[in-house]
């Protein structure tokens, strides 16, 4: 797994400065001082073209709206979403497209607390339940769910740990792909209550 070390930050100088910009945006979001008004005037202004600096790869959860969380304007952020940010083919293809066609050098894998997809996997592992409608997702999240359950003492800790493991797994999966060579991939967690984004592995 690529570590977010000082050396890798030097190597990814531009991506690191984009990341710093996103975290600054998160600071404005938390402070209740957003810079961008995402209304029709802003939409029209940016309609002719886009120059996104990063992709946020996050969960489908309705409470995790990347443009708000990072206080980004139209045209600044690409967002890929799958439940539990499972990096399956179409999601990875979207990241590859962003890197190859739009020159995006930063992917932020953003997990969040109280993730429903992770909870479904935890329930399935614990109760050996079987619902064919969630089979695919549960299978994809089985490993972090079962590892977290074996390492945690209570349900809340297991849920948080499973989500963090899934963020790291997703980062590692993307980091192994030569199609994403030169792209800085970092893991982060969004706190639903405070609005804060924190990096899973601090530099
Ligand atoms: Zn989720």
UniProtKB/TrEMBL annotation:
Keyword line: Metal-binding, Zinc
What's the name of the protein?
Carbonic anhydrase
GO MF entry, a single one: zinc ion binding
Q: How is the cofactor bound?
A: Binds 1 zinc ion per subunit.
Q: What cofactor(s) does the depicted protein rely on?
A: Zn(2+)
Which species does this protein come from?
Glycomyces paridis
Q: What protein family does this chain belong to?
A: Belongs to the beta-class carbonic anhydrase family.
Q: Does the keyword Metal-binding apply?
A: yes
For whether the record's keyword set contains Zinc, the answer is yes
Q: Kindly list the positions annotated as binding Zn(2+).
A: 59, 61, 112, 115
Q: What does this protein do?
A: Catalyzes the reversible hydration of carbon dioxide to form bicarbonate.
């Amino acid at each position: 797994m690529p570590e977010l070390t000082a050396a890798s930050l030097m190597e990814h100088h531009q991506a690191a400065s984009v990341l710093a910009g996103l975290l600054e945006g998160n600071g404005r979001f938390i402070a209740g001082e957003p810079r961008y008004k995402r209304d029709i005037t802003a939409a029209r202004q940016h309609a002719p073209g886009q120059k996104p600096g990063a992709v946020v790869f996050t969960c489908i959860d309705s409470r995790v709206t990347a443009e708000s969380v990072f206080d980004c304007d139209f045209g600044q952020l690409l967002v890929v979403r799958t439940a539990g940010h499972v990096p399956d083919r179409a999601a990875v293809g979207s990241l590859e497209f962003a890197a190859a066609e739009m020159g995006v050098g930063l992917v932020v894998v953003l997990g969040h607390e109280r993730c429903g997809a992770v909870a479904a996997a935890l329930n399935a592992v614990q109760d050996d339940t079987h619902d064919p409608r969630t089979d695919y997702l549960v299978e994809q999240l089985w490993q972090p769910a079962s590892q977290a359950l074996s390492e945690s003492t209570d349900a809340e800790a297991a849920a948080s740990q499973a989500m963090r493991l899934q963020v790291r797994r997703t980062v590692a999966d993307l980091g192994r792909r030569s199609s994403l060579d030169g792209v800085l991939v970092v893991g982060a967690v969004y706190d639903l209550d405070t609005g804060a984004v924190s990096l899973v592995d601090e530099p």
